Write a sequence for this structure.
């Protein structure tokens, strides 16, 4: 795998109505799988949206720095505005028209071949999520950003969805995925970004972060880093800030097609 980043967020801030949601977030996205984890409302979706170019930072900037700068980013937002009357195949044909790739191959990748001729409006919530993953990965974009790809899926489908997402990464391609599924993150992520209250509390290779914090897995890392979850919010918050200074920035993962 290349050691060069494919994308970067530099000093990104985002406010809504004057309230800071992201503050001074600097993250570099490397080839492989980067998981963004953190409590509800910590800013994961906002970070992924900024990385995908769907959310404009109030300050700082997001940029794609990899070799395929002309190609679209695959992006799966939390809610995908699919056309309900299109079939699954027609939906992917639409996205393939933008990003390239084969709609049927993308459907097969997420196990939806048998549903190719069903209308999107008739799909279950879980199938719709899988269609969203197919939509974000069709054409094999160099950067795929997936916001909670496993939400609404049963355990077997969650595993499949995460594996499909991980398989979309490669030596020169990056997948950034937000998730509350810490076991799957532990299994599949090469790098982890921990967000806490809009700031990067820790970021870097999974193994190194776990070793630095003296924990065995990503669930332990989360408990060690996230403020208020380690038996003393002050200490935990301080530890998080220190990590942000020390740890290298890391990456993010999305589905959907985003204009850059
Ligand atoms: N369009 C918006 N307008 C106003 N506030 C927003 C908007 N989008 C996000 N926020 C606020 O920003 C904060 C961070 O939201 P975000 O969705 O990025 O967090 P998250 O970590 O993805 O949360 P979750 O795990 O619950 O999905 C929340 O307090 C949310 O209410």
């Amino acid at each position: 795998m290349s050691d060069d980043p494919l994308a970067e967020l530099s000093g990104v801030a985002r406010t809504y109505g004057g309230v800071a949601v992201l503050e001074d977030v600097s993250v570099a996205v490397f080839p492989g799988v980067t998981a963004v984890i953190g409590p509800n409302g910590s800013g994961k979706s906002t970070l992924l949206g900024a990385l995908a170019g769907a959310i404009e930072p109030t300050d700082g900037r997001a940029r794609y720095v990899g070799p395929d700068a002309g190609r679209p980013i695959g992006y799966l937002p939390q809610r995908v505005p699919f056309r309900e009357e299109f079939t699954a195949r027609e939906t992917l044909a639409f996205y393939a028209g933008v990003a390239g790739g084969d709609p049927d191959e993308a459907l097969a990748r997420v196990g939806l071949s048998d549903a190719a001729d069903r209308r999107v409006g008739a799909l279950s919530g879980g199938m719709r999520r899988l269609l969203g993953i197919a939509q974000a990965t069709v054409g094999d974009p160099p950067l795929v950003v997936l916001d909670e790809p496993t939400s609404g899926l049963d355990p077997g489908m969650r595993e499949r969805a995460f594996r499909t997402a991980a398989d979309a990464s490669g030596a020169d391609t990056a997948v950034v995925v937000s998730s509350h599924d810490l076991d799957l993150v532990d299994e599949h992520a090469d790098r982890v970004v921990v967000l806490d209250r809009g700031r990067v509390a820790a970021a870097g290779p999974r193994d190194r972060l776990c070793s630095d914090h003296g924990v065995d897995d990503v669930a332990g890392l989360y408990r060690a880093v996230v403020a208020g979850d380690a038996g003393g919010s002050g200490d935990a918050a301080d530890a998080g800030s220190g990590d942000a200074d020390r740890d290298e920035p890391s990456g993010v993962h999305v589905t959907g097609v985003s204009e850059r």
Notes: The longest helix spans residues 233-246. Residues 16, 21, 38, 40-46 surround adenosine-5'-triphosphate (CB under 6 Å).
